[in-house]
């Protein structure tokens, strides 16, 4: 299968099964923006070794399971803006070693677990603006040695 881009934004998709895209191993971009997805299940984006850009903004995502982004070894950009996340677990972004840009803006995040971004060694841009952060522990950003843009406005 040679599909490299999968665009299914602005629909009424409400759930994604585990391994939903497993037969599309050449995918580089998935856009699921502006749907009604509530939860990202374990292994939903499993076996996508070429995926570089994952766009999940504008959904209703309240829950990300620990292995939702497992094995996305070449992911560069992850967009989770305009969802309903209220906390960030330290397992969400494990194994995303090539992640360059992470957008978590316009959620309801009030708490981030220590070391949540520690595997994202080359992350350049992290957007946490327009959330509900009221305190940030110093270990939250541990390991972000390449960060150039950190947005924390409107919290």
Low-confidence stretches: none
Amino-to-carboxy terminus distance? 44 Å
Mean pLDDT: 94
Spatial arrangement of strands, main beta sheet: 1-2-4-6-8-10-11
User: How many helices in DSSP terms?
Assistant: 0
Radius of gyration: 15 Å
**What about the largest sheet?**
7 strands, parallel
The run of helices and strands is EEEEEEEEEEE
Beta-strand content: 15-25%
Query: Care to count the β-strands?
Result: 11
Description:
The structure is a single chain. The protein is mainly β and 155 residues long. It is 0% helix and 19% strand. The strands form 3 sheets. It has a 7-stranded parallel sheet with strand order 1-2-4-6-8-10-11, with no helix packed on it. It has a two-stranded parallel ribbon with strand order 3-5. The relative contact order is 0.14.
């Amino acid at each position: 299968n040679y599909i490299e881009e999968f665009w299914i934004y602005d629909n009424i998709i409400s759930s994604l099964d585990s391994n939903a895209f497993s037969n599309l191993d050449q995918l580089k971009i998935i856009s699921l923006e502006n749907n009604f997805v509530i939860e990202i299940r374990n292994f939903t984006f499993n076996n996508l070794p070429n995926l570089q850009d994952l766009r999940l903004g504008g959904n209703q995502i309240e829950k990300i399971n620990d292995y939702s982004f497992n094995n996305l070894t070449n992911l560069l950009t992850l967009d989770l803006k305009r969802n309903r996340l209220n906390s960030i677990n330290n397992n969400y972004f494990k194994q995303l070693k090539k992640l360059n840009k992470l957008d978590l803006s316009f959620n309801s995040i009030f708490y981030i677990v220590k070391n949540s971004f520690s595997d994202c060694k080359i992350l350049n841009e992290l957007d946490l603006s327009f959330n509900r952060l009221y305190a940030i522990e110093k270990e939250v950003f541990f390991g972000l040695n390449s960060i150039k843009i950190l947005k924390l406005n409107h919290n």
